[in-house]
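REQUEST ID: PR-0412
SUBMITTED BY: lab tech R.K.
PRIORITY: routine
TASK: structure prediction, single protein chain
INPUT:
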Amino acid sequence: MNDFIVSVAFERTDFAVGTTPLSIVSGNFNDDENLDLAVVNFVSNDVSLLFGDGLGNFSEPTNFAVGQSPTFVATADFNVDGILDLAVVNNVDNTVSILLGDGLGSFDPPVNFPVGNAPVPLGIGDFNGDSFFDLAVVNFGGDSEDSGGDDVSILLGDGEGNFNPVSETFPTGDGPFSVTVGDFDENGNEDLAIANAFSDDVSILFGNGDGTFSDPSNFAAGDRPDAIVNSDLNQDGNLDLVVANADTNNVSILLGDGTGDFSRTDFPVGELPPGIGVGDFDGNNIEDLAVANFFGNSVSILLGDGSGNFDNRNDVAVGTAARAVATGDFNQDDRLDLAVANFGSEEVPGNDISVLLNTGPLIKGTRDNDTLVGTADNDSIIGGRGNDSLYGKDNDDVLEGRLGIDRLFGGNGDDTLRGGQGRDRLNGGSGDDELTGGASIDRFIFNTNQEFESEDLGIDRITDFSQSQGGTGDIILLDLTTFSAINSESGTGFSIADEFTIVTSDEVAETVDAVIVYNSSNGNLFYNTNGSETGFGNGSQFATLTNTPSLIADDFFLRS
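STATUS: complete
OUTPUT:
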């Protein structure tokens, strides 16, 4: 374990959908090379299509009617025309709706196929070896023993968008709630892994290659497993399972051995997890997890180590009652993003999804005094409770000091520095940075350890310069090596009074004698090496105080 948490940061935007979204999937539904989203809405009985623009934004929803109380949506090319279609499970109708896509973002009216009692999710695979997609639909059943359910309906596809049911259903454990498809015994036939919410286990149904399946082999999971997915989590070439356990607030990792056997380890997540996404979120070619937390209103990010272990959990806030997760690169920056369906509450049903754009590494401090150093990527660096030092290095970083007396240095790039509580020191470095001191008395530092060059400093925006905190305000620190035209002695203020002046226009700022010139009308702060001659000589504007305080000489500290 590192002394600090290394994870991935996300930027959230919410988008409207239908009423009570329950399931979500990504795909290119209008053939424009941008990923779109399909969201199934439990109460409004429809599917919302949101078309992506490739920048992380999505359109207003276009809604397509399906059956009553839809619970799950999946996508594949069911009629082999090269265009993605949709399969939607309708819980009350006991059907699956197939919506064939036209490649332009629209779909044919749904064609419904009967399944068992109270179906919840489905899995897609080729179960009879004819190269057409088939469906495995999990039937949750009713409250009584004779109400049916606790089994799987198999619908065999004909490659034209039609499906024929296998005459028998296949038993599972008690309360099957989620299914994933894969070849778990590596015999060339696709198998089923089903999470059983009431018997607290996973049923493996091994495929016979003809559309039929074996009796279940059961493996223990946590309490009330609600979701299951598969991937190779330990890079041994065998499929493993991830199970989200709603009542124990953890995920069970079942590592497969390639013969159909599994070994289990549990890892904590947020409160009541009902949905899982798998992908490489930190770009190290190792599978990570994104787990939706229904009561936590969040997604837990767990980074994999390539051996089947997961560490450095980071919970990212989303909308109310996160129910399901989809993954995809929604803004085409080669980072894997997330889309989360927010179910809402009984009092206020959900009507939105949260799109989380992956902004790069997150480096997070502890309660101790940490030194947190960024990477060459766009980092988010967050201090803990101690007196921390945060260094952004290259690219556009976000640094947050939070509690303690922190030192924040942006480095190269256009950075955002937020001091938080405590007497912080903020130095944007090169680039056009945004500096927010936060509570207490802060120092905004301008120093490059060499003579002033405008490209070494950029033009920083100081958003909250304060002159009245406990009788002493924030300070703008100017290093005399960088601002070498200043002849005043080091210390507070300017010992040579006329080296600082205030003007009310940028044009006048170019023609005054002072070395440091402040435009009180717009907050612009200039370094002038040219005296009263027009222009700033080797100087330039180096900051803007966006709250336009009435600066005085004593707001500056000169450091030799």
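NOTES: Helices lie at 454-457, 506-509.
REVIEWED BY: pending
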